[in-house]
Amino acid sequence: MWHSAVLLALCIQISRGFYVPGVAPVEFAKGAPVEVKAVKMTSSQTQLPYDYYSLQLCRPRNGTLYKSENLGEVLRGDRIVNTPYDVHMDQGVACKLLCHDLANPIVWNEAESREVIDRIKHEYYVHLLVDNLPCATKFEMMDTHEQVYERGYKLGYVHENKAYINNHLRLILSYHTDDDVTFRVVRFEVEAASVDHSELKGTVDHCQFPEKHSPQELKENGQNSVLFSYSVDWQRSNVRWASRWDIYLQMTDVQIHWFSIVNSLVVVFFLSGILTMIMIRTLRRDIARYNADENLEETLEESGWKLVHGDVFRPPRYPKLFTALVGSGVQIFCMALVTIILAMFGMLSPASRGALMTAGILLYVFMGLIAGYMSGRLYRTLRGQQWKSAAFWTATLFPAFVFTTGFFLNFFIWGKHSSGAVPFTTMLALFSLWICISVPLNFIGYYFGFRKQPYEHPVRTNQIPRQVPEQVWYMHPVLCLLMAGVLPFGAMFIELFFILSAIWENQFYYLFGFLFLVFVILVVSCGQISVVMVYFQLCGEDYHWWWRSLITSGGSAVYVAAYSIFYLSTKLEITEFVPLLLYFGYTTIMVVTFWLLTGTIGFYAAYLFIRKIYGAVKID
After folding, report:
1. pLDDT, tens digit, for every residue of 495-514?
2. Could you tell me the pTM of the whole model?
3. Distance CA 32, CA 339 (A)
4. How far apart are CA 64 and CA 37, in angstroms?
5. What is the helix (H) or strand (E) element at residue 286, kind and residue range?
6. What are the transmembrane regions (predicted)?
7. How far is Cα 374 from Cα 441, in angstroms, rounded to an integer?
8. Higher model confidence: residue 295 or residue 423?
9. How far apart (Å, rounded) are the C-alpha atoms in residues 330 and 209?
10. Are 493 and 556 in contact (CB under 8 A)?
11. Interatomic CA distance for residues 175 and 221, integer angstroms
């Protein structure tokens, strides 16, 4: 019975994950109600989102109604709820009180006032929605005088150590129409102002305040009385509905992005060409000399990588762990590739709220079939016998690490009463996706992969292992790790900056075409640098390349970790313990994931390279 309930819940969650509200154009008649919804409050200083009504703000008279959200929205901390703003299509409002009258303002006690002041000091932004279009605040750059937009509006501001709340909003809405009968919302701007409640005059529906007014100060000690008001301005626009997201997607400097991407591509292609030319010329000379009939003994003494032909395919230590890590890397690679392709074709655009994260999670779950197959066949090649326990390791090792880390961090988020805390039902849904779908698919793939014929090796393995001579200093594993990570990191560090900005500074990321190109370059550079490092290792007669290829080719993850610390110190202003713990916790997950991805790419490139070169030489 419980199996049916779990499957039903999973089907509902999956259907919500791929259903994107508001994708089709919504048409309004003149005077029709236009609903204003609140999403959350966010701050780049605390990284802790909060529900809109976590503060004592004006609530709708008919009660609050939360929207049913998909998996990605819940994990992002979105809590979409209705608000008391009364807005109608193409009908302006000069000034109107939100939920009270002039004689009865909202009264915050000392504890509530301190909570609001704390949010203002941490520069929290409030995010509203109209027709799935987020609000934006326009401001002018000081140096270029260029008008740019940022998401949301500030809850308040601090001046001379005094906190002031933005209690008056001017909602500037733009519409597009072709026939003056049906209207579509194409822009949503907000101008926030702080107005002392004592200077508001008039009635509930027709309030007014002087042009030069005093701001609404909040006192930490004692009560605070606040009136909330708003005005609505409608503007006709030539922007069509299909282009209404342009101002949000232009919040980043696209020219710098273009220049950096092109520069990275040129450098990576140039270095990759040099490496490829060196490797091909060196290998051709080595193989030609080795296959020559004369002076064979002298050639063997000069060419170190041929001397280990009887040990190069000797299975590594801990084959279960090795194949489990490789299988996890395959699963991550397939998930990332398909997700980027879907996003590149516009199926997971920022307008599809939460769809990117939902698609990534579900694709990772179903890619367990491919991961199990690849890991099972590799385990069979390494002469493993206990395929069931090996399959269990592959299915649980990396997900258990992510789930345990996330569960640990979730306790601290719960303690802060943040909307970023994952609800228990969502955690149960994620756990069910893992146990009921990912693990069985992994076992099925492992079963068929283990039954498949192992990979054929061109040379036989000796019974007695060869002694590895002392290696030169620059082939130390740590130095190899650092050297191998430079090139892949150089290919993607600009894109990493934009990704980190999207994650930690609440910005949109939308250049998935560039991301796909960088992903391809990352795969190529990881494969090539892994081939070079393994070739140098074999030339030193060190045939323990299995683990070295996996670890070394993932060396760019070290630079990702270092860059994340640099980004934290230069771009973010996190000072509290819990936000720092969240940053380092999620960064650890990201670094480990990136290491598995790049390490797996490097291993398979080195494996194919070794099979190719030993298949080209004559072994008696």
Report:
1. 888 888 888 887 777 778 88
2. 0.86
3. 38
4. 10
5. helix 254-291
6. 258-280, 321-348, 354-379, 391-415, 427-450, 471-504, 510-538, 545-568, 580-610
7. 12
8. 423
9. 63
10. no
11. 45
